[in-house]
Design brief:
By secondary structure, the protein is mainly alpha-helical. Helices cover 66% and strands 6% of the residues. A three-stranded antiparallel β-sheet has the order 1-3-2.
Length: 132
C-alpha cells in the first residue's frame, strides 16, 4: 500500500509538518515521488514513524532516535550496537530516577517545615530555600 503525505500523516497519527520535519532531520528517507511530484510513502515508512513515536514515548530525543535508527539500518553488528545503545540509555534513566527521588525528598522536607498556620507572613519554606 502507498500513501501521499496527507494519508500517510493520518495513518501515522501525526501532521504533515511532522513528516516533513522527520525528513529534514533524516529520520525518514526521502520518499519516492509521482510524475506530478507528490511524495509517496510505504507501509515500511508507517512502521518507521511508529517506531520513532514509540521511542519518543520512552523518553528518547530525536537526536538519540536518529542514532538509534542508524543502528537499526546497519546490517553488520546491529545487535551489539543496539545493546550498547540501550544500556547507555538505561544508565541515564537510572540517574534521572535518582535525581527525581532526591528532589522528592527535598520537597517532603520543605513541606514538613510548614506550620499548621498557613496564613503566616513569614513562610518557612521560602526561608529554607533562601538559606540553602
Amino acid at each position: 500500500m502507498s500513501y501521499r503525505i496527507s494519508g500517510f500523516a493520518d495513518r501515522c497519527d501525526v501532521n504533515k509538518e511532522t513528516i516533513r520535519y522527520y525528513e529534514k532531520k533524516k529520520l525518514l528517507q526521502e520518499p519516492s515521488r509521482t510524475n506530478s511530484g507528490y511524495r509517496i510513502y510505504s507501509e515500511d515508512d508507517v512502521k518507521r514513524v511508529g517506531f520513532i513515536k514509540r521511542m519518543q514515548e520512552l523518553g528518547f530525543s530525536l537526536n538519540e532516535i536518529y542514532k538509534l535508527l542508524g543502528v537499526v539500518d546497519k546490517d553488520e553488528i546491529r545487535c551489539q550496537d543496539m545493546f550498547e545503545f540501550v544500556s547507555k540509555k538505561e544508565e541515564e534513566v537510572k540517574k534521572q530516577i535518582e535525581d527525581l527521588k532526591r528532589i522528592e525528598r527535598m520537597l517532603k522536607d520543605l513541606k514538613k517545615r510548614c506550620p499548621d498556620e498557613k496564613e503566616l507572613h513569614e513562610c518557612p519554606i521560602i526561608e529554607a530555600l533562601i538559606e540553602d
